[in-house]
Amino acid sequence: MKKFLIIAAFLVMVFAGNANSQSMTTVSYSMGLGTGDLGDYASTFSGRGFTIDYRRMVQPNVGVGFYSGWNVFYDERPFDTYTMDNRSISGKQYRYVNSVPLMVATDYYLKPGEDMNPFIGLGVGTIYTERATDMGIYRLTEDAWSFAFAPQVGFMYSLNRYAGVSLAVKYNMGLAAGDFDSSQSYLSFNIGYVFMGN
After folding, report:
1. Could you report the per-residue pLDDT of 18-35, keeping only the tens digit for each?
2. Per CATH, which fold does 2-197 belong to?
3. Does the global pTM surpass 0.70?
4. What's in the keyword line of the UniProt record (predicted)?
């Protein structure tokens, strides 16, 4: 993950430094809530995550680019007997989920040129999901790269011609793949700073 963070920081600096009037780079603090199978595994609301979105405006109201990030979920389960695969183990469980989406994305802006600009969007690509279950001296891990999509809705508020802030809600859904028989999905709530061009 350290390599991913270094690459992400580098991309932010590159895109922010080369931003022009036809591009936007958004760096967001991301909070998450697991849904479906992921929510059953780790049901606690998570405040650990970030996202990076880059869009180049191909029309005044259409931006195309990429979306990536990292969300971490954690849950603690009481002492009990748990069955994993064909093994039954007794103890207290600590559950961790790491989710890293990598997607191409398109946004449609409803009020281009105005300070308050709502948008809707869709990302399509892949999500890497890793689960780790710790119990005593044992750790069970599962992971998968899966085909994924992420619809989103939000708004951007321009502070000036070079910067803005954004609020967005994304629904990240990775289809069943690898070690997971069910889709792995979560909602992310993102508060971001937008780098805009001249």
Report:
1. 444 489 999 999 999 999
2. Porin (2.40.160)
3. yes
4. Signal
